[in-house]
């Protein structure tokens, strides 16, 4: 990446969050984090990241509520969760969300997917 992009990772699993931070820093991202939905909304509003990776099962404010709150933001949102895509789309009320299943998606694939989005 020529100029550093900022990514917001909203994930409550601390071990996974550390791996994500390391992975995205290694490819040149400025990384912001939130380990619950409430903080995720606040960080996104204040820092205006270029892209957001969002888990759905979160403490304080669930990921569906976070998604809806952040839809107006300019940043694309990639949902990365273990919930089924149809279940997430039905809860959000929007088909065709940018969705990746944690169980089926390696960190490398997630990083590559994010890089492709921000380089468009």
Question: Could you characterize what this model shows?
Answer:
Helices cover 43% and strands 19% of the residues. It has 120 residues and is an alpha/beta fold. The model has no long low-confidence stretch (mean pLDDT 93). It has a single domain, classed as Rossmann fold (3-Layer(aba) Sandwich), CATH 3.40.50. The chain is globular and about 35 Å long. The relative contact order is 0.18. The termini are close together.
Number of strands: 5
Biggest β-sheet description: 5 strands, parallel
Question: For the record, what CATH class applies?
Answer: Alpha Beta
- Please indicate the percent range of residues in DSSP E strands (runs of 2 or more): 15-25%
Short description:
This protein is α/β, with parallel strands linked by helices. Helix content is 43%, strand content 19%. The chain has five helices and five strands.
Task: Looking at this protein, list some descriptive labels.
5-stranded parallel β-sheet; 5 helices; globular; 43% helix; Rossmann fold; 120 residues
């Amino acid at each position: 990446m020529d100029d550093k992009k900022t990514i917001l990772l909203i994930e409550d699993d601390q071990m996974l969050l550390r791996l994500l931070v390391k992975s995205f820093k290694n490819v040149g991202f400025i990384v912001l984090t939130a380990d619950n939905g409430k903080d995720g909304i606040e960080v996104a509003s204040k820092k205006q990241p270029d892209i957001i990776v969002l888990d759905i099962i979160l403490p304080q404010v669930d990921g569906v509520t976070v998604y809806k709150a952040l839809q107006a933001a300019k940043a694309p949102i990639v949902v990365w969760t273990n919930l089924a895509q149809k279940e997430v789309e039905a809860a959000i009320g929007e088909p065709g969300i940018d969705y990746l299943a944690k169980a089926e998606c390696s960190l490398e694939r997630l990083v590559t997917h994010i890089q492709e989005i921000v380089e468009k």
